[in-house]
Amino acid sequence: MPDLLIELFSEEIPARMQARAREDLKRLVTDGLVEAGLTYASAGAFSTPRRLTLTIEGLSAGSPTTREERKGPRTDAPEKALEGFLRSTGLTRDQLEARDDKKGQVWFATIEKPGRPADQIVAEVLDGTIRNFPWPKSMRWGAGAMRWVRPLHSIICLLSDDSGATVVPLTIEGITAGDSTRGHRFMAPDAFSVTGFDDYAAKLRRARVMLDPAEREAAIRQQAENLAFARGWDIVPDDALMTEVAGLVEWPVPLMGVIEDRFLDLPPEVLQTSMKEHQKFFSAKNPKTGRIEGFVTVANIETPDDGATILAGNQRVLAARLSDAAFFYENDLREAKSGMDTWAQGLNSVTFHNKLGSQADRIARIAALSRDIAPLVGADPDQAELAAKLAKLDLRSAMVGEFPELQGTMGRYYALAAGHPEAVADAARDHYSPLGPSDAVPTAPVSVAVALADKIDTLTGFWAIDEKPTGSKDPFALRRAALGTIRLTSGNNLRLSLEKIFLFATGSLFSLSRAEQYLQRGGDQRIRDFLNGLCADNLHSGASTGSIDEGPAAKSAALLESANRNDQNLSDYVTMVRAIVSKASADLLAFLHDRLKVHLRDQGIRHDIIDAVLAQPGNDDLVLVVNRATALNDMMATENGRNLTQGLKRASNILTQAEEKDGVEYSFGADVKFAETDEERALFAALDTAEPAIRQATASEDFPAAMTAIAALRAPIDAFFEAVQVNSDNQIVRRNRLNLLSRIREAGRQIADFTRIEG
Amino acid sequence: MTSPNRPRSFQEIILRLQNYWAAQGCAVLQPYDMEVGAGTFHPATTLRSLGGKSWAAAYVQPSRRPTDGRYGENPNRLQHYYQYQVIIKPSPPNLQDLYLGSLRAIGLDPMIHDVRFVEDDWESPTLGAWGLGWEVWCDGMEVSQFTYFQQVGGHDCKPVSGELTYGLERLAMYVLGVEHVMDMPFNDPDAPIALTYGDIFRQTEQEYSRWNFDQADTDMLFQHFKDAEAECARILAAAETDNAGRRIPMAHPAYDQAIKASHLFNLLDARGVISVTERQAYIGRVRALAKACADLFLTTDAAGASA
Fold first, then answer.
1. Which end of chain A, C or N, has fewer beta carbons within 10 A?
2. For the purposes of burial, counting CB atoms within 10 Å of the CB of A56, is it exposed (0-12), middle (13-18) or buried (19 or more)?
3. With 70 as the cut, is the pLDDT of residue A566 above it?
4. What residues in B contact A11, CB-CB < 8 Å?
5. In chain B, what percentage of residues exceed pLDDT 90?
6. What PROSITE patterns does UniProt report for this protein, alphabetically (chain A) (predicted)?
7. Whether A84 contacts A123, CB under 8 Å
8. A137–B132: do the CB atoms touch at under 8 Å?
9. To 10 degrees, the CA torsion angle through A374, A375, A376, A377?
10. Average pLDDT for residues A663-680, to the nearest whole number?
11. Treating both helix axes as pointing N-terminal to C-terminal, what angle do A622-636 and A607-614 enclose, rounded to 10 degrees?
12. Helix, strand or coil for residue A537?
């Protein structure tokens, strides 16, 4: 059984692409070999910045001969049919065999495919793999037409067994496969030949190339930790950086440096970010001071001066970077201490979106919204408003200009420097969260208020201007904002009517931007008053959730309209705003429900169960939806629950049919005195017990208890349908039974719309 | 930096690069006589990277980035600086080795330094161009851009050009061990009249920073932008044959106007009068010009078009 060694030697492969390239090479080659009839014992893939390597052990020496039997036309079929069959099989008539079949005599062909030697198959598979390699980005070079991630220089393709090694004959775009490669670019640049994988790996090591990325990572980790240990420091772990750095070197040589004292007062996040982003340094922390005081850089070469020149150079570059950072930080702190007015002013000229105004406009909206959300989440309204006004000012700071990923982090430092309370400063840091599905959800009330306002302003804003995500396009990260809203509310158990908040936020958007435009066009000042009323009232009106037509805002609109019957412009405008605001809010809620489905599905809750719950009133209270759905999902996991659902759906179907046929709604008046059977009477009794229990449980939002209560109906319902014919000839009995069914339907509706549950 | 081979001044580094690339067979060109943001804008790169004709050129290009002005105070940032540019078509298979040779030529020995090719894909939205390559790091500092051009002016580059761009001030400061650009010796520090970079450029950095940020007449710049755009379009639309019946498409004069528009946009940007959303629109307008010039250039002899 021969072994196969493949090396694709190129100019430097981007570090971030190497892991997938290893997997792709292994998959494409082994799949291709297996497809062609070869087998193998094991395969392993490796990479360095300059090479992708695949080793396959125990490959079969050739593919087996295969026979395939194919049935053709009947012997008495027209000549054309036979010709076609001969063409498709590549045989002649005398090679066919006539056999008896059910329908008469039929031609059979036996096609024999001779086995092929492994080298032919390997050459074909590798050629196809190289030409179709799924690099995220590939390029051409020189005058050639071939594509690779960077120019490809040489190929090893070697089959070896006990009798020796042979190069697989293969030439692709002028590169002929051979048995030689090169070592480290500087330390061992000469070409050398290899006889198989073990020889290859050993010679590479002598030529200062560590082939296995896992080994490079381990070497970096161990040496970095040793260097740190000698000073009593700890390396700050960073797996992503480790993988990247291991993909940038063939021969890792970690070197440790010390951060100059003058930079140690910089926030640790600044040191770490600057060193990581610009220099790809690991940070070293002094556990005694809690500060980051050193770094480890990983060179790719051993030098006669033991890296002294390299370390000095890196230290110098770092000093220049940190001088910039320190300069930015000092200036920023000065601005922060003077109240950050310049930054606030500056955000006036930063466009958030041309239809949604500047960042300053956006901050004003978020501040208003934060203030109004605050009481709902247990935050102090003054603090929430203040935090919202401060939270994004760091976008104008020099530090965030340099390191956008420090937005929020710097905001916290600057808010503290300005003398604001911790809770306010923390909100500046945390209000962008949660950014992804695994990012932590803020829990401090002020942070929650601002984080929620931030996301809701984004959503309502883009909905109001009709810039919704489509397909894979979501340039404003609205799905992320929706998931953030979901996680903030459900994660903090916040009982909110999102629809009211959406109405408020959308309305507020109009009052701050559209109304201004209207006024600029010579519109009536009263429009602003109308809109302000609209916003404030929708959020805090005692009315249940719902439409914009409720509450004092509607009244003020009505007054406005009647007082201005002659002002067609104004009334048209009011009508338009009302239409847009309510449509955008409803649409947005539907979008949020979609995202909630995705979110809950990931947590194992079936989509039809979520649909059944979303059909209930109060579906803009996500905590309520989640609790209901969870309880229902648990019940549906039991056989009892599934049978109950069948019964509820059956009751509902019969009722719906009867109602359609009779043109009336059966909803009231079932009386036990018309019951004819024990099963009917038992169902009456069960409903008498279950109904108040369900009502009480749902009212107190104890959904598991509601499920238990309704589950008790399963046996009586089953027995009822077993024994009783609903459509009795006696109209009184029939009507009574239909009304009884409506009690079942009603009991179900207390919990969910069971008709939406599948199965 | 202990190499005995070490250059002593900014100009010596430039001279060594010129000699090195001349020895590799490049035509050593002179800077383009227009204001540009980078060496890539020189028609010797943009236009000559198009079409099938072979090409090898090296040159210094003074480059202007008005928004980077810091009144000569920042140790590393300038609104006017120099790039060294090498462009070879088709890209030779040993371009990385040739490049490393140029580092040795200016005193950076890769056996004692840590030279690395770190992924950096290049894209110029104003030129409708992109390529793949690296930024080259020496001891953790970016010293060059190394790019294989894939598209320019919206056209596939066939063959592919290899482009090397050295940020001369930063590279020289590193080689010479200077902390502030203005302290860097421009000519030999032992010359009878030794001049630093600051002696030559501190005042101009101050003057241009003030003009770029505070004084440039934005109405006039907007008008100039429109004029350049209109003239570019007019040149491109002109008949290909002149009055004497000779076919002379005017790709280069048209491209000059595209360069002009690009620089005017940069000036307007520095004055802070272009909003984020307008920005994209202006970049798109310059790109449209550059693409049209590329289209026309491809019909000319210099692009290898058969007449």
1. C
2. buried
3. no
4. 96, 117
5. 86
6. AA_TRNA_LIGASE_II_GLYAB (PS50861)
7. no
8. yes
9. 60
10. 86
11. 130
12. helix
Residue type, A325: A
Per-residue confidence band for A555, with pLDDT thresholds at 50, 70 and 90: very low
The closest CB to that of A141, out of B115, B134, B148, belongs to B148
Q: Measure Cα distances from A723 to A280, A647, A690, A717 in Å.
A: 77, 13, 21, 10
Q: What is the pLDDT of residues A702-720, one digit of tens each?
A: 988 998 899 888 889 989 9
User: pLDDT tens digits for A493-512?
Assistant: 998 888 888 877 776 666 54
If you search the block for the tokens 């851009």, which residue do you land on? B145
**Is the Cβ pair B117, A140 closer than 8 Å?**
no
List chain B residues with pLDDT less than 70: 1-4, 276-277, 306-307
Rounded to whole angstroms, how far apart are CA atoms B277 and A616?
43
Average pLDDT in the A473-483 region? 89
Task: Quote the CA–CA distance of A658 and A737 in Å, as a whole number.
Answer: 11
Chain A positions touching B304 (Cβ under 8 A) are none
DSSP string, A724-740: --SS-SSHHHHHHHHHH
Smallest Cα distance from A632 to chain B, Å:
49
Complex ipTM, two decimals? 0.94
Mutate to test the interface with A, among B2, B114, B179 (most CBs of A within 10 A): B114
Pairing between strand B122-124 and B129-138? antiparallel
- Tell me the pLDDT band of A556, cut-offs 50, 70 and 90: very low
Contact A331, A377 (CB under 8 A): no
CB B218 within 8 A of CB B271: yes
Strand partners, A44: A55
Q: Which of A14, A139, A301 sits opposite B114 (nearest CB)?
A: A301
Longest CA pairwise span in chain B (Å) = 64
Domain architecture of chain B: domains with CATH = 10-210 (3.30.930.10), 217-303 (1.20.58.180)
Separation of alpha carbons A49 and A429, rounded Å: 37
Amino acid at B130: W
The answer on pLDDT for A541 being more than 60 is no
Is A142 an interface residue toward B (CB < 8 Å)?
Answer: yes
Looking at the complex, does the CB of residue B67 fall below 8 Å from at least one CB of chain A?
A: no
Interface test with A, best of B49, B119, B279 (most A CBs within 10 A): B119
Nearest-Cα distance to chain B for A362, in Å, is 16
- CA distances for A320 relative to A311, A415, B179, angstroms: 14, 27, 8
Rg for chain A (alpha carbons), in Å?
Answer: 37
Interchain CB distance below 8 Å, B113 and A310: yes
Rounded CA-CA distance B66/B86 in Å is: 24
DSSP string of A573-641?
Answer: HHHHHHHHHHHHHHHHHHHHHHHHHHHHHHTT--HHHHHHHHTSTTTT-HHHHHHHHHHHHHHHTSHHH
Interface check A191 vs B, CB under 8 A: no
Q: Specify the DSSP element, H or E, that contains A454.
A: helix A445-464
Whether A202 has its CB under 8 Å from any CB of chain B: the answer is no
The partner residue sitting opposite A139, judged by closest CB among B1, B76, B148, is B148
- 3-state DSSP call for residue B180? coil
What mean pLDDT, rounded, does chain B reach?
93
